[in-house]
Amino acid sequence: MTKEQLASVLEIASANLGSDGWSKLPEGRTLTLYVAHEGVQLLVPRVESLAVQGDLVKARTAKQEIFVVALADLFAASTDASDAPTRRAGFI
Predict the structure, then answer these.
(1) How far apart are CA 47 and CA 73, in angstroms?
(2) Is the pLDDT of residue 77 over 60?
(3) How does DSSP classify residue 62?
(4) Which end of the chain is more exposed for a tag (fewer CB within 10 A), N or C?
(5) Per-residue CA distances from 1 to 7, 59, 89, 92 (Å)
(6) Residue 21, pLDDT score
């Protein structure tokens, strides 16, 4: 993925660039990143913020995990928005 493509993904997801260099997604919206290197795939779900430093992408998840991947290995991203409350198992 190129920096322009990633910028487009962040624009579609309505991410805002903070003073700390991290692009934070709005409350309730997350990204899933699809990464592959030499035939090995990695899925990074529930990303809440991203930071790009040169050819590296840092992704912070809802669990505050931080993944660092090469921008060249990132090949797709999808965005989720939960406007409706999620349904829990059990009786209402």
Answers:
(1) 17
(2) yes
(3) T
(4) C
(5) 10, 15, 38, 44
(6) 93
